[in-house]
Amino acid sequence: MSSNSGSQSSLSSKALGIASSLMLLQLLSRGVTFALNQALARLASPAVFGTASIQFELLSSTILFLSREGVRNALLRAKSDPGDKTQDNGNMHPSIENISLLPPLLGVPVALFSALLYLYLTPPATLSQPYFTQSVAIYALAAVLVLISEPLYIRAQNDLQFGIRVRAEGSAVILKAVVSVAIIVWGGEEKALLAFALGQAAYGFCTLVVFWLAYPTQLKLWPSKIAETVHGNVREYYFEPKLLRLSMAMTSQSFIKHLLTEGDKFAVSMISTLEDQGAYAIASNYGSLVARIVFQPIEESSRVFFSKALASEDAQKGKQASKETNTMTSVHTVLSLILLFDVHLTLLLVTFAPPYLPTLLKLLLPPRYLLTSAPQILALYPTILLPTMAFNGTLEAFLASTSTPSVMKAHAQFLVGASVASAGAVWLLVEYLQWKTTGLVWANSFNLFLRAGWAGWWAWEWFGKNAAAGRSWHQAFPPLPVWVTCLLCGAVVRATFPEGGGLKGSGWKGIGLEDIRHVGVGATCALLTVAVCFLSQRKHLQQELSIVRGK
Fold it and tell me: How far apart are CA 46 and CA 282, in angstroms?
């Protein structure tokens, strides 16, 4: 086996380990978040829940996204010099470390400006809620705490030490849940917003502590390094020009991307009542569980794999990626396998989710949310939003790992056009057709579809310009038996849907014998479908995985 094959095998194994670790993290964090939402949805009113989960979370994500996203993605593509002595003592290269200090430096003014702008634009009805202003300030402070730990996150990410992140975020999520529930139980609904805010602050503090324990000497060196960086001492500490330009390009692009990604929250916070925002928030939290637990870890681990596999020679020079056939074949195979997984998961969601969603909602949603738009919003997730999320995440991960500054400029121009088209879709569906919050889900899906289309086009063009050993895209589609099985099983589970079924009652009291019989049929069909998927593609998957491992 060649050294390149060995490195690709090692990298693919690490990427698989990263994906599994992140899935465990998301399973833990989303499980805790799910339990937290179940408790808070019953303790807090829809208005309070909507304010915290839509508006406050939007404020926090805006601060974090604008301050760190571009730097984080750019430094993932950095390749350290193997002969650099700074690597021998466990330190990052100075050029990488200095750029990694930008997120906390940018975060303070971004947090201050975002919080003040949010308070200025907030209507009086929302401002009048108890502890509202204090909660906004705490959310901004919590975002800064998270950003202080960002250089340590970047170091762990570049070292592929994702176990540190799992410990940090896992423990932070648990502490956030405990603090939020404890305060709202102790202080009542009057202190509900404060409970959410202090829970978020606990999350930021815990993240910082765990990263600091992993790198105890790092924080002590930051004051002097920040001072030297600010005063431009380029003899010892400097910004590597190409990395800095890439970071700035990705940061400017991330602003438009953030508007598109969080466009539904921006829209719902402006056009909906606080109660409707609560319904949208709880539907979004439940509906995105699959995306957070499965899609996000795959997206992040694939971004690591693509970035590291292609972070060599010509790719570092901003030209075409390495022409080495083994590398191109391995990258193409990994992307095809991930897309194949996305197609399978989409088929399973479309086949089984709609017939069983009403039964599931009886158990999940508090009774007062069954009378809101939450059930209608959740019904669109498995068939419309989640599939577009899956493909967009995978393809944009590849785009972020391979695009040059010129490509990012073209992509940014496309995103401007996509934002205009998405805004038009929101007006058409929400205002003109009066679809309200369900219209936002359709508009969000349209936005993701446009972005996935552009990223897919880029992947097609990129592999067309780089040798991929004659690989085709047919490998990303399941064979005919899988499609036929999903079609037949989908017809069976819909034919056995309980007569007059739907949202009759809530909780276990709303579950009858017909529902139990219906679930049994679905479980049998699901096992049959999974068996057909596995047996019909076992040999193909073994061949593909052997290519990734370099055998």
Answer: 9
SS3 at position 242: helix
The residue type at 307: S
Report the sign of the C-alpha dihedral through residues 482, 485, 488, 490, in that order: negative
Left (φ > 0), alpha (ψ -120 to 50) or beta: where does 507 sit?
Answer: left
Could you tell me the two tokens for 537?
């593609």
Please tell me what DSSP assigns to residue 235: T
d(CA 507, CA 42): 13
Distance CA 76, CA 531 (A): 38
Give the separation between CA 124 and CA 110, rounded to whole angstroms: 24
Burial 112-133 (b: 16+ CB within 10 A, else e): eebbeebeeebeeebeebebbe
Rg (CA), the chain: 24
Q: How far is 242 from 468, CA to CA, in rounded Å?
A: 27
Residue type, 253: Q
What single string gives the DSSP state of each residue in 75-117? HHT----TT-GGGTTTPPPHHHHHHHTHHHHHHHHHHHHHHHH
- Residue 203 and residue 197: Cα distance in Å, rounded? 10
* Cβ neighbourhood burial of 232 (10 Å; 0-12, 13-18, 19+): exposed
Q: What is the pLDDT along the chain (551 residues), one digit of tens a residue?
A: 445 555 555 555 555 555 556 666 666 666 666 676 677 777 777 888 889 888 999 999 999 988 998 888 888 776 654 444 444 444 566 767 778 888 998 999 999 999 999 999 898 888 999 999 999 999 999 999 999 999 888 888 777 777 787 788 888 888 888 898 899 888 888 899 999 999 999 999 999 999 888 887 665 555 555 555 555 544 445 677 777 888 887 887 777 778 777 877 888 888 778 878 888 888 887 877 777 777 877 887 888 788 777 765 444 343 444 445 677 778 888 898 899 999 999 999 999 999 888 888 877 777 777 778 888 898 899 889 999 999 999 999 899 888 887 888 888 889 888 888 988 998 999 888 888 888 989 999 999 999 999 999 999 888 887 755 456 778 888 999 999 999 999 999 999 887 655 545 556 666 778 888 888 999 999 999 999 999 988 887 777 777 666 65
Residue with tokens 């002097």: 224
Q: Which pair of tokens denotes residue 296? A: 């996000």
Of 70, 214, 208, the residue nearest 142 (C-alpha): 208
Helix (H, G, I), strand (E, B) or coil at 122: coil
Find out whether 17 and 9 touch, Cβ atoms under 8 Å. no
Separation in Å, CA 504 to CA 182, 283, 370, 498, 523? 33, 19, 10, 11, 22
- Which H helix or E strand runs over 339? helix 325-364
CA distances, 378 to each of 34, 259, 435, 443 (Å)? 15, 22, 14, 15
CA proximity to 359, closest of 467, 241, 514, 255: 514
